[in-house]
Amino acid sequence: MNNQKALNIIKNLHDYMDPVAKERVSNNSFLRDSDVHAALSKAVHLLEVEATKESEFKTKKWTANDQMKLRDLYEGRQSIPELIIELDRSEADIRNRLKMLGLLNENL
Q1: Gap between the Cα atoms of 35 and 54, Å rounded
Q2: What is the rounded distance in angstroms from the CA atom of residue 46 to the CA atom of residue 69?
Q3: Hey, where are the domains in the chain?
Q4: Which string of b and e fits 70-103 if b means at least 16 CB within 10 Å?
Q5: Region class of 2: left (phi > 0), else alpha (psi between -120 and 50), else beta
Q6: The dihedral of CA 51, 56, 59, 63: what is its sign?
Q7: 58 in helix, strand or coil?
C-alpha cells in the first residue's frame, strides 16, 4: 500500500468515517475515544510530512557533484542512513543512484 492510500484511509478514520462503506461511524465507535482520535491525528500528520518529503526528493535532480559526493561517502564506508542525512535524499533515491553507479548490487 502506498502512503497516499494509507493517508486517505487514516484521514477517513480520523473524520469518523468508515473508509470502506464511506459512512459515518456510530457515536459509540472506538474511533470516538480521545486517545484513538489523538493517535489518528498524529498518524495523519506524520504521513503528510512523509508525503511532502517524498515529493521534494522526487524533484531533486542529481548533479555530477552530488554523484561524486555519494561515491566518495559510500566508498568511505558511510552507511545508507548516514547518506540519507548527509545528502538529504530518500533511501530509495540513494539506493537507486548507487545501483546506477555500479556500487550496489542488492541481488547478491
Answers
A1: 28
A2: 30
A3: 3-59, 64-100
A4: beebbeeebeeeebbeebebbeebbbebbeeeee
A5: beta
A6: negative
A7: helix
Q: Rounded to an integer, what distance in angstroms lies between the CA atom of residue 35 and that of residue 41?
A: 10
* Contact residues for 22 (Cβ-Cβ < 8 A; gap 6+): 12
Cell of 49: 510530512
> pLDDT tens string for the chain (108 positions)?
777 888 899 999 999 999 999 999 999 999 999 999 999 999 888 888 777 766 665 668 899 999 999 999 999 999 999 998 899 888 888 999 999 999 988 764
pTM, 2 dp: 0.50
